[in-house]
Amino acid sequence: MNWQHGVTVRTMGLQMMSMKQNRQWRFGSWVGSMLSVCCAFAFILLGLTTATAEAASASTTTANMMSGTEGVLLAVLGQEPQRRGRRGSDDDADEASEDGTEKSGADEDEAVEEEEEEDPDTYLALTNATVYAMTGAVHRNVTVLCKNGKIHEIGTGVQVPDTAEILDVDGYRVYPGLIAVRSSGILGGGDPSDSSDVYSMNLTLALAAGITTANTGNLAAKLTYGTLEDMVQKRNLFESLRYSSRNPQGKKSVRDGLRKVRDHLRDVASYEEEKRDNPDAEKPDEKWITGEYAKYMRLIKGEAAAEVDANTVHELIDLCDLSEEFGIELVIRGAYEGWAVAPRLARANVSAIVTPRDTVNANPRSNRPSGSTIENAAILYEHGIRLTFMPVGSWFGSGTGISMGGLAGRDLQHLPMEAAFGVRGGLSGEAAMRGLTIDAARIMGIDDRVGTIEVGKDADFFVCDGDPLHYMTQSRWTIVNGRIAYDKDKESLFEHIRKGGDVDAPPPTDHWPRRLGQPW
Amino acid sequence: MSEIKRLTQIPVLVAAIGLGSACVAGSAFGSSGGDDVLVLKVGKILTMNADDDVINNGTIVVRGTTIAEIGKWGEVDVPAGADVIEMTDCWLVPGLVEAHNHTGGSMSDLHDYVYLTNPGLRTLDTVAPQTPDVEWAQSGGVTSALLIPGSGTNMSGFGTVVKFAGKSADEAVLKFPASIKIAQAGNPEGYWWGVGRMFMNYNLRATLEQAREYNAAWEQYESGQSETKPLFNPMWDDFRGLYRREFVASVHTQIYQVVMTTVDMLADKLAIRTVLDHSTFDGWKTARLVTEQGDILTMNGPRQFHFDRTQRKIHGNAARWWQSGIRRLGVNTDAPVIPQHELSYQGAMACWYGWTPYEALRGITRVSSEALMVDDRIGSIEVGKDADVCIWSGDPIDPRSTCWIMVINGDVVRDARDELRRF
To answer: B125 and B219 share a domain?
Structure first.
């Protein structure tokens, strides 16, 4: 083991959360080497700033420089250390990395129990909480006790263990963590547990938006700041389907493929029947069921929903027909003309990922209702269609990412505002919040773990200073898997905005030219 | 069941939802200007006047195209035969005024990259009323906007203040010339094979100096100081109003070094009424200069935040201008960069990043009207001003609020309660 990095990490007050031992040290080495790189880099940067800013500071001693550097890194990385025991063993970790699969939490726990002792339980207690559970209930002045990342107890008179970390959330609202049904650039590509920088700024920005779970590359992942543990929640969320009238051949091949698979399943059923009387019955060939056919098989068997882009009335109707013919569950992305065929969509029992702010003019060459309307979300919801939201995006980036270009309010950073535009069109606030939490979880098939605040579910919370659909509401704390992943006051990004809840809070001191030794 | 039959049911459904709002539907409306009387009875009037009066349970009476009377319910006589719109849960707010718009005309005329400075060009000729873009603007409660050319050159032409109403360009135009569009830096660099700030500043200054000389020559002649009548030159003639300070320079300027140049060159040395039109990135660091200069207005946007890498902080641009003492402050959309109907949402975002709602609303009504020098006509609800008002379901800055009714020049130009496909 590399003790040096271990020491560095501990003195830095870094959270070394329970990763598998082997990974932890590997990660430790990574942090260590990054630190040395950062030190060198920050040293140069500080030198530059000093040179351009103020000649007097240029004579600052190296020691001061170093302490400045440490300050930089602490500000970037430093949160209160949260200690959790390590789980698993080297063997475990190696297995996981070799076969590239992640074991589910339950399996992992079993494996752990077999091999070594369980770590002491970790508790987090939110006290004086007003809990918007998204089950229809608002619990006032309760304690939410979380144990090992799960919600353990909610109520008054909850016995909080001595070892619990206590977070007094008096005056704030506690919602389930928000769920982004599409995301990009927040976690790494491919398998995010292999590729994510758990200290990336985009991750922190998404947490500041109240988001705790995101669909990244068709995989539901937790925004686990500072740790890779329990990041991946569910793989293969959807099967992507293309069914557009702009590609008639493509549509035909989808239908043909689905028919072939359906016929095959009938053949299999006949074979099973025949086999009872005739042991020599020939089993239908299954070797061809790969690629697209395997996808169609999953869809027809109901093992996954099809995610498909569709907007116009005729596209939507065609999809409903397809869904009903083959019994496929559909998640439609877009659906800006859904309002015009809402009863049809409802009968096909589709879900929709909508952007209430879509602005599409009516098609004057079409002999039917067309174009977008601000009432789309409300009309779909009235018809019982499950909804979630995707921000509209801007010139500087798609709505599913986070852009630092400055065009505010059109990406995941302000995800609740997209739902607020749904409210403009007549959607109830309750429905809008469901779309950001439990309904999004249902669409992604992860509602067994997230989306509401209930005992047994994951301890993912968006603790904010008002109604999330109000345009000035910000996250005070965002909690993922029972750990504080974002703390507005300890993170430099938004800490100065309405500090202490004061709308007239003074601005931060300007740091240009920035002087060494000044606080951030 | 045929699909057609189902589709025919939809308009009924949509209308039903539209009417299902908290607002109480009123009686007949639809005055057609002239001497018709329109009465609006609402729950709250945000006058946005100089005293910042707010009238709860208020009524306004519109005669012809202007506001004739304002008061509480019962204090204002409702003339017999007047059209009355009664929405007692709703707010009455001045029509929003956009200080930086490119969609009030033909988008294909946005850029004329002829020269690096194009003093003869003007948007007046491109005004297009009744386009889909105008309908979108109306849906966001925006009644007027400054239509200006793009920022591809250092000087791209004269802007026009249009109202989002009227069947012809003449009816739509409120003020021309209303501004000269100047892009100080941060786009014209792409002109031809590339120019830098030194040349751009030199060239812009040279153009403006020539225009100033033209104006001076005419003034000398008109005041009798000179016998020689100068030659009329259409390229320079519109600049005379600029130097008489009858309209402003809309300056595409951002980043503190560039904003400093704007303050120094345009506002101080050339004594032009200057509006800082983007004033983004860290432009707010020049707040002290702007305050000292005295008559500059700041219309911040479309970028509402700036990431300061040195401090690792995300600053709200409007909040930082405000906190640095700038009071004549508004926001803009730079439509279509941000769609025109999201002008109020720009205010919402400014607030998320640290500004305050009332100031944000003032910044897109009274202050933006002052910035365009049309505050004698629009921007607040006052007796004698144009009846350009909107009835909102609530706080106009809140994206959850709906602009139900828009009145321009005393006419109801939009009633969202009637729309089959509400924007």
So the answer is: yes
B422 to A373: CB separation less than 8 angstroms, yes or no: yes
For residue A356, whether the previous peptide bond is cis, meaning omega lies within 30 degrees of 0, is: no
One CATH from 3.20.20.140, 3.30.750.24, 3.40.250.10, 2.130.10.10 for A304-444: 3.20.20.140
Residue B267 lies in a domain: yes
**For chain B, how long is the longest CA-to-CA vector?**
86
Task: Tell which A residues from 379 to 438 touch B, by Cβ distance under 8 Å.
Answer: 379, 382, 394-395, 404-409, 414, 417, 420-421, 423-426, 429
Contact criterion met (CB below 8 Å) for A450 and A233: yes
- Cβ of A492 within 8 Å of Cβ of B313? The answer is yes
Would you say the C-alpha torsion B99, A418, A466, A431 has a positive or negative sign?
A: positive
Number of domains forming the structure of chain B:
2
Residue B165 sits in the same domain as residue B19 = no
B173 shares a domain with B154? yes
Q: Residue-wise pLDDT tens for chain A (520 aa)?
A: 333 333 333 333 333 333 333 333 344 444 444 444 444 444 444 434 333 333 333 333 333 333 333 433 333 343 433 333 333 333 333 333 434 444 444 444 444 455 567 789 999 999 999 999 999 989 999 999 999 999 999 999 999 999 999 999 999 999 999 999 999 999 998 899 999 999 999 999 999 999 999 999 999 999 999 999 999 999 999 999 999 999 999 999 999 999 999 999 999 999 999 999 999 999 999 999 999 999 999 999 999 999 999 999 999 999 999 999 999 999 999 999 999 999 999 999 999 999 999 999 999 999 999 999 999 999 999 999 999 999 999 999 899 999 999 999 999 999 999 999 999 999 999 999 999 999 999 999 999 999 999 999 999 999 999 999 999 999 999 999 999 999 999 999 999 999 999 999 998 887 555 455 555 4
Give how far A9 is from chain B: nearest CA, Å: 22
Give the strand order in the sheet containing A238-241.
A238-241, A305-310, A330-334, A351-354, A386-389
Does residue B50 share a domain with residue B177?
no
Within 8 A of A505 by CB-CB distance, chain B residues are: 354
Identify which of B204, B194, B296, B318 has the alpha carbon closest to the alpha carbon of residue B250. Answer: B296
CB contact under 8 A, A497 and B304: no
Is the CB of residue A49 less than 8 Å away from at least one CB of chain B? yes
Residues of B in Cβ contact (< 8 Å) with A367: none
